[in-house]
Amino acid sequence: MDSSIRKVIFIMTDSQRKDMVGCYGNPHMRTPNIDNLAAGGIKFEKAYTAQPVCQPARAGLFTGQYPHSTGGWTNSMGIGQDVQHIGQRLSDHGIHTAFIGKWHLDGGDYFGMGRCPQGWDKDYWYDMRNYLEELTPEERVASRDQNTIESPGIDATFTFGHRCTNRAIDFLEKHHTEDFFLVVSYDEPHDPYLAPKHYIDSYKDYCAPITPAHYDDLEHKPEHHKIWAGLDEGELKRSQEHIDRQTRNGQGHPNSRFFGCNTFVDEEIGRVLKTAQEYAPDALIIYTSDHGVFSGEHGLHAKGPAMYNEITNIPLIMQCSQWKKYGVIDQNPVSHLDLAPTIFDFMGVPIPKMFMGHSLKEQLLTNKRTNDYVFIEFGRYEVDHDGFGGIQLVRSVFDGRYKLVVNLLTSDELYDLEKDPYEVHNLIHTESYQTIRDTLHNALLDEMNRSRDPFRGYYWENRPWRKDATRPTWHYTGMTRQKENEEYEPRQLDYATGLEMIESSRSK
């Protein structure tokens, strides 16, 4: 069977938790279009973002590299000039590439610069700054006001999401005969939850359920989680009063605006899917979200320096008519970093050495597991803001059951998600898990070295619980690890000889 695919539609949302999608087990969340996509394709249960923050997550998705390798490891810090995004790489192979929606990789503020990067079709480029520039000053203010959704005068045509969809439909109608890679990147359901009022009215009486994670007292958790949760100095754990306050006295979390906007963006996605079915029925369709958000789990809100599933385990669905796979549930661990090499593999484009993930092509076609591990990181929430905990260097590894989290500046975590799916019980010092913990730790250190993590060093290995850690030395591993980006750069030179390097990773 010819498994090549020459048309790809990549759809993503912002801050959409996995449990905000109906097909992932929450019947109260009305997302029929995404649910239908899963019913006709493959739904991934253990898919993870590269970093649970908007820009770094996108850096991983759209460069195929870890955020730490791109320069964009925090919001408002653009990717480096020597980092090629996948639109440029694909367009250089003759594929028509278009990006519509939130980009967030140019180093500007939340809305972006309004400028089309090289490699994307400038006629379809449309970021959030472009949207705001279409509005009057009064409309701009209204578009950022969370109360606007309560106005019965707001209709879909006013929203960023609807205008993104219109452009995507136009692209598919005009260019469906070409080889193409189309990205439709919604800001919804991210606040300010801009959507017509009737969407939120349907969730007025709904509260998100309380889970065991809401009752995590944080007694054996990292110090920065306690600070984030608002514990006073000297408190070792959250009190019952604090937990009751965080969980609305056990009644759940009402957020009709968020949930209403969630259903609204599903409807916009449905408009794209309907057009795709008409004009590009043979296209590979990929849907995902950049990260999730906390709603009081572990005493935390929004997103930031934590590796809990609420913000790292994201929805991911793929559908392609030629696969003839319907309602398949994939339980293998996969990463956002795997999507770029998967797209290149199916489209017949050589996979660059700079990509850090692995193609899922064989897994998709044969169900054979691709990854032994997936890796997640955190550096900073935003370079502009002093808050959100400041710099918090975190690296994590997950093997499909066990998750190790190394919080460089505080203390570490280990969870057995089979026995403890809500990640309440920290096993980092549990002797019976020592072998599992150290195996994960070795894999994490190896990946930091392989990926040329600029923050790597002996301090990641020398943790208080690692009894057999190598004695710290200034020399550390003694390796040189140069990059290989020869599609766009000359082969790098060996410092000692001035000649082209033979091996990129070698003893120094």
Describe this structure in words.
The chain is of the alpha/beta class and 508 residues long. The protein folds into 3 domains: 7-206 and 255-371, Alkaline Phosphatase, subunit A, CATH 3.40.720; 212-246, no CATH class; 394-477, 2-Layer Sandwich (Arylsulfatase, C-terminal domain). It has helices spanning 32-39, 54-63, 67-70, 86-91, 128-133, 137-143, 160-175, 197-201, 223-228, 240-246, 256-279, 309-312, 339-347, 361-366, 434-450, 458-461, and strands at residues 7-13, 42-44, 47-48, 96-101, 180-185, 284-289, 294-295, 301-302, 316-319, 328-330, 334-335, 374-378, 394-398, 402-407, 413-416, 479-481, 505-507. The longest helix is centred in the middle third of the chain and has 24 residues, at 256-279.
State the main characteristics.
Arylsulfatase, C-terminal domain, alpha/beta, four-stranded antiparallel β-sheet, 27% helix, 16 helices, 508 residues, Alkaline Phosphatase, subunit A, seven-stranded mixed β-sheet
CATH class of the largest domain: Alpha Beta
Largest sheet: 7 strands, mixed
Distance separating the two termini: 47 Å
Strand order of the largest sheet: 4-5-1-6-9-2-10
Mean pLDDT equals 95
Number of DSSP strands? 17
List unreliable stretches of 5+ residues: none
Shape: globular
What's the CATH topology name of the largest domain?
Alkaline Phosphatase, subunit A
- The number of distinct structural domains comes to 3
CATH architecture annotation of the largest domain: 3-Layer(aba) Sandwich
Task: Report the sheet-strand fraction.
Answer: 5-15%
Radius of gyration: 23 Å
SS element count, helices: 16
Main structural class: alpha/beta
Please name the fourth-level CATH homologous superfamily of the largest domain: Alkaline Phosphatase, subunit A
Q: Specify the helix fraction band.
A: 25-40%
